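pipeline stage [seq->struct] | target=ABC transporter substrate-binding protein | organism=Geomonas paludis | residues=273
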Amino acid sequence: MKRLAAVVMGLALFGSFGKAMAAAPADTLAEVKKKGVLVAGVKDSLPPFGYVDEKSREIVGYDVDFVKAIAKKLGVKVELKPVTSASRMPQLTEGNIDIIAATMTKNPERAKQIGFSHTYFATGQKFITVKGKVKSLKDLEGKKIGTAKGSTSEQNVKAALPTATVLSFDDYPQAFLALQQGKVQAVTTDEAILAGILAKAPNKAKFEIPNVQISNEPYGLGMRKDDAKFIAFVNKTILEMEKSGEAKKIFEKWFGKGTDFQLKRTFKIVADK
């Protein structure tokens, strides 16, 4: 009887596994065209990459505009699904989304699990601190530092500051709230994200982003690893966006003059070697 129960349980587990595997199409490009919708995993609380606009109540941002451009090229609609740094890769591999456009740094570890587009945004990891408190990395030794779970920022800061206590939150706004409450002495992630958080803070004059950088962070659009046709299509599309000036236009819209961030575009989208 026990043996029969074990067999039944095994078949049930296999069935569940099979459904999860079946949820991820073998050819996303063909499947997206067939269903007429591109499902994208994006951030929904991280200006200006992905956040809910107060007036329209829709998710907007730099990452969203890239997804919309890809969908337009495909001739399909876009469905946006909010993801976190920790949930985005599982959502992709389980077939719940077709593409990740969520401030995702390309690195060798992740590249073993999923496929990446060419770099469509480049930044570096820095910190938000109370103004005047941090002049060098040494000033953060032994301190409590907030970041997001499942991010490369979490790994990088542990390597750069082994004596620090790293507290990981569900997202960066929560980490910044901890800084405001004095529970951490710094928040760390990519400079562009930090600039977005600080720009929206009502008490932003109390904080700053010191010129202390611990890594380079190239962002890629994430797709399933063996989905070669879709990856090639996305790469071709974003290279065309660079050539036409559309990619630069999107950057200026979200980061350029007239925005709260006023970052300079120091990169171009090129074919990765």
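stage status: PASS
auto-comment: The radius of gyration is 20 Å. Residues 2-23 form the longest helix (22 residues).
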